[in-house]
Fold each of these.
Amino acid sequence: MSSLIFPIDIPIDLSKYSTKNFNSKCDTLIHNISEEYARSKISNCTTIVFEVTQECNFRCRYCAYSDLYPNFRRHQNSDMSFLVAKSALDEIAKIVFSGLRTNKGSIAIGFYGGEPLIRFDLIKKIYEYSKLKKDEFGQEHPWRYRLTTNGYLLKGEIVDFFIENNFSCDISIDGHKSEHDKFRVTRNGEPTWEQIWRNINYIHDNFPEYFNEKINFQVTIHPEYNLFKLQEFFRKNENIFNKKNTRLSTLRMLGLQDCLQQIWEKKYRKLQNTVSKLDKNFWLFDKLNFNRIENKLIKKTSAKKFVNQFSGNCFPGENKLLVNSDGKFSICERVSPGNYIGDFDKGFYFNKIIELEKNWKQTIHNKLCRKCYYWFYCNACYSNSEKNGIFTIDNNFCENVKKSLYGDLTKYLSIEEEKREKNSDITNCLTDFIDKL
Ligand code: SF4
Ligand code: SF4
């Protein structure tokens, strides 16, 4: 799923504006990426994700693994074996516990699918083995465990295990029953809302502490979604859903069938118009507008550093390392086989990692990204720029970054003026910035 970006028309060409204030880290890095450098980066890995299966008990009508996305894989009976998971963790532990790690935070172990809970047997084994691994290396920093589930199997011994072992759990539910059941159906096309709702309420009523701390929700907004129904549903169930535990996302456009792209963009634009008619005092309005923009603009940077930030994509394997069901290591779930960065048997492919990173740095160097006015905000990364196995950033991509920034800034300021103190540091900084656009 992509973050919420509604396409917005932009009336002026912003490309002529640039700033000289960006540093030249990029030039230096192209020449200095060594195996040692790569090892130190990967040792600070923050999330290891095991794709325990590529199968799912649902066939959601908008799933990234459906016919809507012709170039992505399909649901298939490809399960990870414990031997693969165990060897992969051995290889990863050699690096993250090598003494190079400077990140003091814990490492999240996530489980991904398909639907990960259909491999609960494997999840339990990986959990047990990760504890052994930590003890073997005498590490203080605990692992954290998390997964995203469609919630259908979240009951009985699975819930007991999650509570006992402090698993965080994101449950996908698309709000109101009628909206949810239009798209989120079982393999046989049966509705799923009732069962998921029962499971959610069971945890909420019987384990309130665990529910408050560890359960979050993921709501996917389809372009044909009725936002008023969503508002009504959240209002009615305020004991379950709140601003903090509910994440909203739109469907991903990248990889979508060509014939659908324009139709969905148009429908999302229409949906955007209904957002302004929602209750401004209810948190859903903030979530769909203010919070989304604030997160993108402010938390990424600070007001003072606003135009000086050197951003860019993550180093392969540093932020997230995905272990595919066949034991290949990947930068993320969207990167193709030709760009794998290791496997459970041979460990990390350092030559490949160095090549990828050098090519990427060269690409952004050639595009003059470091002089680009939108650099601090740009989300170009491996996951959204691969075409036929090659990472490229085309002009269309840059145009969309610009449109999106302009739209976000304008909207942010109008909401800021309406809802918050005028003349705050952030407002001043942003007004100053937008004036230059
Ligand atoms: S639950 Fe997730 S993986 Fe399964 S069909 Fe639905 S969107 Fe796809
Ligand atoms: S990729 Fe991003 S930073 Fe680079 S030129 Fe395009 S918009 Fe600017």
Note: The chain has one domain: 35-350.
Amino acid sequence: MSLSDVLAVWLCLLTVSQAYVEVYGCPATGYFGSNCSVPCPDVNCQYCHIKTGTCQGCKPGYKGHRCEITCERGTYGAGCKETCEHCRDVNQCSVNNGTCLTGCDAGFKGDLCKTACDRGSYGYDCKETCGHCRDRYPCSNINGWCLTGCDPGYQGDLCKTSCDIGSYGSECNETCGHCRAVDHCSNINGTCLTGCDADYQGDSCKTLCPVGYFGQDCSDTCINSYTCDGCSDVSGSCDYGCRPGWIGYFCQKRMQERSKVRRLAVDKSGR
Ligand SMILES: *[C@@H]1O[C@H](CO)[C@@H](O)[C@H](O)[C@H]1NC(C)=O
Ligand SMILES: *[C@@H]1O[C@H](CO)[C@@H](O)[C@H](O)[C@H]1NC(C)=O
Ligand SMILES: *[C@@H]1O[C@H](CO)[C@@H](O)[C@H](O)[C@H]1NC(C)=O
Ligand SMILES: *[C@@H]1O[C@H](CO)[C@@H](O)[C@H](O)[C@H]1NC(C)=O
């Protein structure tokens, strides 16, 4: 590098720095003049020429040669280059800094309404709590709908409604058993919370009493409980037939199958 080259670079730098001082010379923005005490002639001007007062740069929220234009609806900031986020009212987005002056749309929070509600909440000011959504997926931050359906026992878009009385489980597809009180059937797993109707047993009261038993909690015994195939829950008589091998009103008689077979055998050999 020759001496003249170095000189040329130095001169160039000097020019640039002088230009900088001329444009942005005053430490306080919005003023000009040799004392930096005269306000820029254009009210929304942030930087004006130190000698002439010509505007060189507008305050955030304004544009135009004399900064006479307010940012269009929905934009803000230096040169109006930023876009307002999810303001509840886009007319109430500060042209200066993008703050939503009357709050956010449903599903968003923060001064700028740029941040979605935390997982598990939704709505205006993120004040609502998601319902019983299935899986690890949360609900929509905007309207609270569960995106992949409900946990067992719940229904509706929000999964905040229990299954209708008498049904339970996934998508409320299951039907409650013979609960003593159908409104005490667990909406989640079908357990009959206050026990079963007469003649039924099990958590969900879907199983008949064992053969030979009947009544509340299956605590009554049929007459001939070993041979009856279910009996009247009033009299205990064998109204539903006998177990294989037994006959009679009380299923008290053993079928005579053996003798029948023997008789046939005798008939055959007798010919
Ligand atoms: C600059 O400041 C001096 C002294 O502080 C004052 O006499 C003079 O009037 C000022 N000039 C302007 C243009 O304000
Ligand atoms: C944003 O600007 C508004 C006025 O437009 C003002 O009230 C608010 O304090 C400013 N917020 C911040 C964070 O500077
Ligand atoms: C529930 O029933 C609906 C309609 O009958 C069916 O499409 C769905 O697959 C069922 N869901 C379950 C979990 O059984
Ligand atoms: C069934 O759900 C009820 C609540 O509805 C609960 O108390 C019970 O423990 C559950 N039973 C089983 C077997 O999960």
Note: The radius of gyration is 44 Å.
